[in-house]
Write a structure and sequence with these properties.
The longest helix has 18 residues. This protein has 9 helices and 8 strands. About 35% of the residues lie in helices and about 15% in strands.
Length: about 240
């Protein structure tokens, strides 16, 4: 895994390369491996949404799925987004599962948030913090110095197939301005309702890592869908003079 290369590329802010992380929540749960294979290597990351039925009202994958992905795709960058209450129990399990990056929610208790992010980093993983659409930036400001990624949820967390909340694009722009002003190194990820019609607006708002589930895996050819979204993102950035 070329883990560090994503952050090294951020040193040159004049050019932009957008990463695509298809969310396996949008795949048929009986054929997750086949769904990943159907991407034909077009993805940059694999995004795994972990839901416990408490923090959000849905259940999804557990550490066994993360372990299975690592065994089957040993070189993949696996990006796990934890929407869970019991971080004390679940964090060690996902660290042991071999994921590349763990993202936890800013809505957790402030001291637990900092301690959990620090423990992720001590384990040698990349650490991310997620912000729900109803939460303000003040939730993440205290930990921006120690995170590698900020995930802006552009839908209410918990279910796939929702429409993008357009006002969350301004939050992404705020994170871009804050990163530049303070010299932070985090990537900005957006998840929720992103498709070929809006991906251009999403990347122009400053998103570095695009998560898309239903739009990709419900397409007749998921790999071709990713190619088309990547092309639209590049076209938007090129038109703005900031493409790679």
């Amino acid at each position: 895994m070329r883990t560090n290369s994503y952050w090294e590329e951020m040193k040159d802010r004049r050019r932009r390369r957008v990463l695509f992380a298809p969310s396996l929540l949008g795949a048929d749960p009986l054929f997750v491996g086949a769904a990943v294979d159907g991407l034909k290597g077009r993805q940059d990351w694999l995004h795994l949404d972990i839901m416990d039925g408490h923090f959000v009202r849905n259940l999804s994958f557990g550490p066994a799925m993360a372990k299975a992905l690592r065994r089957r795709y040993p070189d993949a960058f696996i990006d796990a987004h934890l929407m869970v209450d019991r971080l004390d129990v679940l964090l060690p399990l996902f660290v042991d599962a071999g994921v590349s990056l763990l993202t936890i929610h800013a809505e957790t208790e402030p001291q637990l948030l900092h301690a959990s992010l620090s423990s992720i980093r001590r384990a040698g993983l990349r650490a991310g913090v997620a912000l729900g659409p109803a939460s303000g930036l003040e939730r993440v400001r205290p930990v921006l110095e120690i995170v590698d990624l900020v995930l802006v949820m552009s839908v209410t967390p918990g279910f796939g197939g929702q429409s993008l909340i357009e006002t969350t694009l301004e939050r992404t722009r705020d994170l871009v301005r804050l990163r530049a002003a303070e010299g932070y190194r985090y990537l900005i990820q957006m998840d929720g309702g992103i498709n070929g019609d809006n991906v251009g607006r999403v990347v122009l708002a400053g998103c570095d890592v695009v998560v898309a589930g239903s739009a990709v895996f419900e397409a007749p050819d998921p790999g071709a869908c990713l190619d088309a979204m990547r092309a639209k993102a590049k076209e938007a950035l090129d038109d703005a003079g900031i493409g790679s």
